[in-house]
Recover the amino acids of this structure.
């Protein structure tokens, strides 16, 4: 650039604020384009290191994904939010698939006289499939299994959010079913019971197996019921027995989960 | 963790793991201390099964096992092992929508690094160790195969664990990364226990102080690298023509044939290398992939 | 990357995601930026914060650097705006000490103003009241808009405009 350069003595006075405004101005204009002169200005290295650490943190550390930010909002701890955010069945693809399936079930319910039954048979297994996928589809499960993080805690954290994100749309869809509302929500209790039972069963068998087994059981019950009674729309609601049994299962399985929440460390291949 | 000698070792006697009628481990014995131990064997020898058992992600059916002095069959033992363990599985996957940093950060959460800032620093440290600092903010799905493999290695290094269990750690690494990896493992083996499986004899020669040759779920050899090479002393020779009685043989660049097995009288013996001893241990008709 | 890598190349590498390049850039520029910011902001903690924001912005915005002009000037441009932002978030208790403020875009007006050999101009600037000089420095020399200057100085935009007009009159009279 120019022949003129800042000397060490001048740089010191500039840094100390002891030069006239006009001189400071010309120093600053010069500095912008002159690396050697910039090098004359020094700041305590420890201070710069400290600032650099902060920059690195902000630059590399994750800006949490939307789901994580939402979880943090509702008071979930940072660590738990991260663990929940890795759930495969809390991703957009699962949620859009869910909406699609519910839409289809609603369409069938309106199009066919037996359609409501189809919806009632399908809705309660959606959370089960979500839970099965939350672990069966987890690409990091082998790594996760070798860590000290409580497997039951991971299970309960993920399952709660999978159930919430599945049941809410399903409930919303159920409101649009033909017929009365008592029938529309008859599947809710069995669904919760089966999901909780899968969790409880995870103490002994892989949760993916438990959830899929429960799904198969439910489909079998529904099919048998349909064949045996021939009635459709109100069959589930009328089956007071089913509701009662569901309630009992929910309470017992829930108690078992609570009891085993201290299962800090999974038996290999049991939980995950 | 206590720092007694026992707390740094793996002791297995008669380990058995069945898959239906197949015995993946068939009475395997293993005894290691600090330093790097290489597990050498052909595919299907039971290496992965053994490592998964040591990493507490798979139960075993029979035998006795102590990892770092702990019993992996009790919850307390498993917890203690997992707290001192870095495990690189053969098929370590990550959530593809996460960045490299987030993927490792997730494992760090699972490894009980609760202080956010300290955890992030540790994540950056291990990413630096495997040379992935510059892709920390890139999505896992955008990383190459070699980078993902290094990412998998990075999570195993979190918290500088006392025990590193690495299943085929050098697969997918290019020569330069392989050298960097050997440095890393040698450093890790200093005062700590590293167990790695491979079917690359060069890896063993480069980093392992001890070597265990495994086939059909059993240990065929356990000892130092020098002892392993000594197995083939006087059993490696070269000849102008291919000798069909040799366990294994291949053509060298100069047109002569390198043989491993029982040499005929008057054969031109040569100094053995690890792969010769390895092939000899596997027996006649053994896989030649190590060559 | 070596010591010889130019700043412009480093910015390009930062745009490609290299945090090592960002560190080199930081090591080269952090000190003088800190000194220059300190001349505009008396609170060291705030200067640190602004410096941090500046390099985070460099990281995120490296792709928008067009390669025209010195990267040092570009980074300073970011820094001074981050300083304005910081004052907006947390207005300084006392008005910032602004003995001087000068800048980068080498416009014709700048060249006149920095032509210190023209003793008249230098003297005229030095004789401006601190209030008027601060406005001249922020708008003409730091290249800030009236609104940004107002935020930096803790004034209403209208006040900045009036003071700027007043300063022009004084300078014109002095140099006439």
């Amino acid at each position: 650039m120019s022949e003129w350069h800042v000397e060490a003595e001048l740089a010191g006075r500039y840094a100390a604020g002891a030069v006239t405004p006009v001189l400071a101005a010309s120093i600053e204009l010069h500095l912008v384009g002159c690396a050697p002169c910039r090098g004359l200005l020094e700041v305590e290295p420890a201070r710069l290191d400290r600032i650099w650490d902060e920059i690195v943190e902000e630059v590399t550390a994750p800006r949490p994904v939307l789901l994580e930010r939402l979880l943090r909002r509702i008071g979930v701890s940072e660590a738990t939010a991260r663990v929940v955010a890795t759930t495969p069945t809390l991703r957009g693809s699962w949620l859009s698939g869910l909406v699609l399936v519910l839409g289809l079930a609603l369409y069938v319910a309106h199009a066919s006289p037996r359609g409501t039954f189809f919806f009632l048979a399908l809705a309660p297994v959606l959370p089960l499939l979500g839970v099965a996928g939350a672990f069966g589809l987890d690409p990091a499960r082998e790594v996760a299994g070798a860590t000290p993080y409580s497997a039951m805690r991971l299970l309960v954290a993920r399952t709660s959010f999978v159930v919430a994100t599945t049941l809410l749309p399903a409930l919303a869809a159920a409101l649009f079913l033909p017929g009365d509302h008592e029938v529309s929500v008859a599947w809710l209790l069995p669904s919760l019971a089966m999901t909780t039972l899968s969790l409880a069963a995870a103490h002994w068998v892989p949760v993916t197996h438990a959830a899929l087994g429960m799904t198969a059981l439910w489909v079998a019950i529904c099919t048998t019921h349909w064949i045996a009674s021939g009635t459709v729309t109100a069959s589930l609601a009328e089956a007071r027995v089913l509701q009662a049994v569901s309630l009992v299962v929910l309470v017992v399985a829930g108690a078992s989960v609570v009891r085993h929440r201290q299962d800090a460390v999974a038996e290999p291949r049991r939980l995950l | 963790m206590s720092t007694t000698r026992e707390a740094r070792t793996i002791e297995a006697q008669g380990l058995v793991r069945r898959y239906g009628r197949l015995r993946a481990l068939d009475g395997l014995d293993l005894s290691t201390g600090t330093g790097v131990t290489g597990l050498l064997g052909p595919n299907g020898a039971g290496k992965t099964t053994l490592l998964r058992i040591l990493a507490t992600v798979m139960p075993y059916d029979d035998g006795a096992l102590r990892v770092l002095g702990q019993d992996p069959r009790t919850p307390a033992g498993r917890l203690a092992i997992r707290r001192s363990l870095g495990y690189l599985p053969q098929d370590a996957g990550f959530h593809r929508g996460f960045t490299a940093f987030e993927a490792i950060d997730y494992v760090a959460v699972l490894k009980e690094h609760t202080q956010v800032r300290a955890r992030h620093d540790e994540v950056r440290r291990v990413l630096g160790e495997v040379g992935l600092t510059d892709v920390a903010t890139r999505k896992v799905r955008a990383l190459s195969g070699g980078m993902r493999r290094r990412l998998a290695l990075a999570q195993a290094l979190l918290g500088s664990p006392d025990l590193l269990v690495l299943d085929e750690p050098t697969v997918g690494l290019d020569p330069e990364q392989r050298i960097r990896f050997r440095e890393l493992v040698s450093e890790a083996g200093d005062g700590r226990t590293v167990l790695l499986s491979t079917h690359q004899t060069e890896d063993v020669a480069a980093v392992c102080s001890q070597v265990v040759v495994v086939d059909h779920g059993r240990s065929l050899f356990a000892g130092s690298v020098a002892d392993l090479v000594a197995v083939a002393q006087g059993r490696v020779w070269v000849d102008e023509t291919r000798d069909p009685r040799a366990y294994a043989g291949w053509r060298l660049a100069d047109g002569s044939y390198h043989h491993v097995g029982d040499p005929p009288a008057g054969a031109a013996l040569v100094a053995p290398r690890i792969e010769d001893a390895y092939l000899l241990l596997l027996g006649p008709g053994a896989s030649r992939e190590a060559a | 990357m070596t010591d010889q890598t130019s700043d412009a190349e480093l910015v390009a590498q930062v745009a490609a995601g290299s945090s090592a390049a960002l560190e080199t850039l930081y090591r080269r520029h952090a000190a003088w930026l800190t000194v220059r910011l300190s001349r505009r902001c008396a609170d060291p903690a705030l200067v640190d914060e602004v410096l941090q924001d500046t390099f985070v912005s460099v990281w995120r915005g490296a792709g928008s650097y067009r390669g025209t002009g010195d990267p040092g000037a570009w980074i300073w441009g970011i820094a001074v705006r981050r300083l304005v932002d910081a004052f907006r978030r947390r207005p300084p208790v006392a008005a910032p000490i602004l003995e001087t403020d000068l800048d980068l875009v080498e416009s014709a007006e700048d060249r006149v103003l920095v032509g210190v050999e023209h003793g008249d101009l230098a003297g005229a600037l030095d004789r401006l009241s601190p209030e008027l000089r601060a406005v001249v420095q922020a708008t003409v020399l730091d290249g800030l808009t009236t609104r940004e200057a107002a935020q930096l100085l803790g004034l209403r935009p209208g006040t900045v405009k009036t003071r700027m007009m007043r300063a022009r009159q004084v300078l014109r009279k002095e140099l006439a």
Chain B touches chain A through 44 residues (CB under 8 Å).
